[in-house]
Records
---
Amino acid sequence: MATRRNVVLHKLWICFITFLYFSTESLSQTDNYIVHMDLSVMPKLFADQHHWYLSTLASVSDVAGMSTASAATFTASSKLLYSYTHVVNGFSASLTPSELEALKKSPGYVSSIKDLPVKHDTTHSLEYLGLTPQSPVWKASNYGDGIIIGLVDTGVWPESESYSDHGMPEIPETWRGECEGGAQFNSSMCNKKLIGARFFNKGLIAKQPNVTISMNSTRDTEGHGTHTSSTAAGNYVEGASYFGYAKGTASGVAPRAHVAMYKALWDEGSYTTDIIAAIDQAISDGVDVLSISLGLDGVPLNEDPIALASFAAMEKNIFVSTSAGNEGPFRETLHNGIPWVLTVAAGTLDREFGAVLTLGNGISIAGSSFYLGSSSFSEVPIVFKDGCHIMSDLIKIGPKIVVCEGAFDSNDLSDQVENVSSANVTAGVFITNFTDTEGFIGNKFPVVIVSLRDGKTITDYIKNSNSPQASAEFRKTNLGIKPAPRVTSYSSRGPSASCPLVLKPDIMAPGSLILAAWPQNIAVDSNNSLPLFSNFNILSGTSMACPHAAGVAALLRKAHPDWSPAAIRSAMVTTADTMDNSMEPIKDIGFGNRINPASPLDMGAGQVNPNNALDPGLIYDVNSTDYVRLLCATNFTEKQIQVITGSSSTDCSNLSNDLNYPSFIAYFNEKNSSSNLTIVREFHRTVTNVGEGICSYTASVTPMSGLKVNVMPDKLEFKTKYEKLSYKLTIEGPALLDKTVTFGYLEWADSGGKHVVRSPIAATSLSPELS
């Protein structure tokens, strides 16, 4: 009896101490921290690192000094968010300032990072990339058969037809993941397509203790994760469309690959502790490719959760595709400028959504439109108002089609569209030579944008008719639009502030107006104040480009299982397309009508070409030791490098700022130098022959204004497959370049004419720095 009484009193004492702790804790604000520990210091008495972390937390807890060991351990368990296994040697915990200071004095402590909020940044896109039943890369990879693509995102809508497992192969024996149950989600919802589903929100809950999670499971309540995962690996869905736009058969880039979803982005908020835990779990589960359409701006590599997590993934031979961000068109806005990942920019398709305007004289005019209301209207009076800036005039017009002219930049066009939309007229037709119109056509009001030439046809008809009228048909989809692709205005530009020595972005993939799966209970838009629902949605962003590239990587991983992540990236970069479908250099539409050729800081090497990447001829390979040598050559301390690599020791005896990367970036930005001073930037590269056994390659370089580029040797003679040969590239120019960016390409062409291995070269006067 006394024993039972003592147990009860002991438990009451623990409860009292815990209550006292949490009551006083509110006076000392807690925050989440990612804590890096040196595993070599862990005492042998601990069975594993998780128990060591708990003991460490118990020893620094504010309640430790006034409680029993049991109470301190209980408190430590409540404060520990995650014990990480692969991504970080350490854990995340909710700590008061005094606890954090005490932790810094604990044995094994390396460093800590405060938890940060994170933001997340297709029927025809596959055909546009050359993926058809006859394409070599689909045949060689059997459509990505057996490859597992993991995504860290907002979750998944398992009922979508894109996750049907019809025709899917069996789940790979290497798979160690699971389908985690939760709110409106049970394990039976997974199948041979959707093989894994987990969710992570301990960091979010610790940050917001009073938060109510609306859907505490992997079920998608936002739509982003369903869209990205079906873009990468969705199964075939016939008859897909978005209210009649983009009709066709939808599928992912790798339709026979498996999907594993790791939900770490929530309607209520998203934090780095949860994202690291998600990637850590994906590594343990055995994914082959990771697609990460999110990022943080303005953080160094040693504080960037994507950089830390992806380094661990790379060491496990996992390919990581990331989005460049949506902060374009300005320079130095890119995130995920990480040397060991693929950083993907967004481009347009050769597809346009539109309407046909038929004038009273029978002439039909095609224009851009993305209206979701009535599919047509007939014989409506049409009037011309020149510049539609005066609202008092517009509201007098009534139920007519209003034609506006004179919008030659985005601000003016935006003002005119807004004015006409608010004027209670039937529709608006806008005559402009402004080319970046995607943001104006997706309107709840019927907007049609036409060219200057077609606009003149319309205005001439109105001026010469006594009672001009027109009819309109919407929901048109036009293919083969030229020029395409083009770099979208929103796609973030390089150079990378977090690692300026490596050219970023790496590649461009379709990101504009992409059709993919969508949760059927989440409204895609509204019409007349009523919500509209669809099983597919059309979205734009580098978030849409990233899973396209991840899908391509899955195909290459299947076709070349012995290739490293760097080899796959190299194949994609060196075989990318630099010309558009009109056989002109790919253009950048980032600055309105000032359309210039896109530079490597805008699009990387160019538009990804999956079929060419299957057989690149030569590859530039890199391993973890090479990345460490690069980090050593920068301003990172040994402790910061240890945080990135997870290693307890760092060998910087052979440092090098010259990574064996398939691209080049040179800085000529010495602003205080003499005007006639000339400097030379030197690069060393080693290529591996993955083509024919005996072959030779000859180098050529496109001219770069104001610079001299030299390659030595300019011929490489390979005797066997997998032989490695090296060369040196030098760029000589003024200490301060007179242009912001000058660029060209190094091409290695084989004597048989089968392979052209192309690397972008960018020279810039910019001086990227983290803000």
---
Amino acid sequence: MITVNADGKIMVRRCLVTLRPFRIFVLGIGFFTLCFLMTSLGGQFSAKRLGDSPFTIRTEVMGALESRGALRKMSDMLEMLMKRMDILARLENSTDFHKGDEARFPLDRFQPAAGLMERIQAIAQNVSDIAIKVDQILRNSLMNGKVMDGRRDQCEVPRDPKYPDCAGKVEWMRARWTSDPCYAFFGVDGTECSFLIYLSEVEWFCPPLPWRNQTAALPSPGPLPRGQAAFRSDLTRLLELVGTGKESLIFMKKRIRHLAQQWLRAARRLEQKLKGRQRDQKHILIHIGFLTEESGDVFSPRVLKGGPLGEMVQWADILTALFLLGHSLRVTVSLKELQSNLGVPPGRGNCPLMIPLPFDLIYTDYHGLQQMKQHMGLSFKKYSCRVRVIDTFGTEPAYNHEEYATLRGYRTNWGYWNLQPTQFMTMFPHTPDNSFMGFVSEELNRTERQFIKSNKVSNMAVVYGKEASIWKGKEKFLAILNKYMEIHGTVYYETQRPPEVPAFVKNHGLLPQHEFQQLLRKAKLFIGFGFPYEGPAPLEAIANGCVFLQARFNPPHSSLNHEFFRGKPTSREVSSQHPYAEDFIGKPHVWTVDYNNSEEFEAAIKAIMRSQVDPYLPYEYTCEGMLERIHAYIQHQDFCGTPSPPAAKSPAMQSPRSPLALAPNATHLVWSPEAGWGGGGSTWPPTRSLQVWVSEGRHTCTETCQRRGLVCEPTFFRFLNKKEVFLQLSITCDSTEYEMNHLYPAVAENVHECYLQKEPLLFSCAGYNTKYRRLCPCRDYRKGQVALCRDCL
């Protein structure tokens, strides 16, 4: 046996103990060498990070093939280094070193350990060699890059009259291309050629470069074959799509579950009504912008504290309707999800989308609209025709047209989007210039209706208002009401009863929706104190057999005299807390009185207590009514097609003969049968429903049509915007001018001056001026469904 003295054992032990720290040292050298080289290359290398989505991968700048080669060579060398380190680790692990065997350590096991030092020295030398070789690669890469840059800088800005903005855009790119990383993502590297490639292939301001014909990106593939939409009979998948994590989403899912059976029955009825009609399945993105963290999401924290629920009620119903109609949905409530689904390139939002928009329609709100504009670049304008904006109070054309709103003082924080006004979709049908989206209220079956009628408490009133501030200053009304009725409230509070709520009021606190419904089913009266405006609760109360009592506003509230409406993109005058209930429902279900007149207020309470009222729900607020309406919009509203011809710029320009004819009673115009019923075959609503009336000086077109049992239809304005129409109505025109004005077409009768509309986006049912009498396009509507004409479905 060979023995080893103590010095030999100590040397071996120290060698082996120092192997692991030395391995770490060598790895450190390799790591810092890599970092130094990557930094030296100035960001010419790029890599895909594990876990990134396809929309966050950052590719290398075009023309950096040499840099990629350098990266590949360096990677190979580092891989060789790691393999050698693995051999070292295996050798170390194979050396059995036990404390109990120190006295009998064999010398043959010292031979490999001694050889390890030589291998470590070789690895260290390799690290040095790597630095030298990569330095050589880097020098060659930079020299070749200069040659390439020289070739690229030979590009000249083309002078093509078809691309008048090209030179200006190139100049802008020279000065600002580093302002957003998205330009580098698309290959811009500061050279003239990269500017022109980007401006011709990613954007469309410059003509394609001839030498790029073979290397230009392949054309986008055509759309995939579109499937047919089929009515769905299960909402489970929808509940998964809505997601979790926010109180607002939890509320919406509860509502969907609660109304599920009503929705499913309504879907079956509409399916039978359509009789198997073929419908294309749409790919739809629903982005609820007001629930994103970037917009503040002020709603979610207030769901359980008496905050407004109207928007969440409407969004829950929109989601359910679109899903049951059989369309493919994607739901987002965060900016990150929105960017991922749209294909937004990395950067600050100045570049177009990386891919063609994969959605036929996008339903969003004003917050979402702003987020899309900030992150879609030029693609926002390209695809804005696919957007539908859920807009509670409406957006009138005068506020929507950016140039006009700026010049005429209509600009607000919410308007100037230059969309078609019917792309905005409202909660109530108060703005015919917009589309009426609506929501649904719970329907009662026959048994429930009979139960409610027999269990009503004739002297029980519920106050509309969950926030204590609504009750402030209402002591006078409450004192009168308390003489006749027992008053109930649902005011939110945490520990102490709100001082604004009088002691004689029985306050239930904030109630869950089903408990609130039960309270309404007992009550005789649901009373509003002027706020909130136009919410869903009054319709729910009327549907549960209550009478709704509300205040008449004199003068009407508007952006001119009331803080709540200031800044909203509408000049609409609100005559009561709930104009829809006043105008479309009315007595005996709705009473609108002057609260400042105590006698009128008290008399209304007495009359309501004596009245017998059945539960009532307008058809347009049933599940079937909403499904019917959204189906019609999806099938017929197309804002991406060829726009209608612009209005003529001068009277000298010829216009086609008017397709209108004088009605038999000679009071208005109707569509002439000789012109055909289709209005060119693509008009929706069908032109057979059109009637043309002349307004009085103080009436809007909305009011003019409403007085005749009709609805103003802005789609038909283009048929009125002709000089011949004035002649057909026996209106004398000494002159005819074409101007941008949201009140035109109109006539100033005192001076016999006629005006036609120059800008189609400004056709508007809203607005009046005592100087003018307006030409108003009206149409009929289906009973209980004001959004659709009789032949619209």
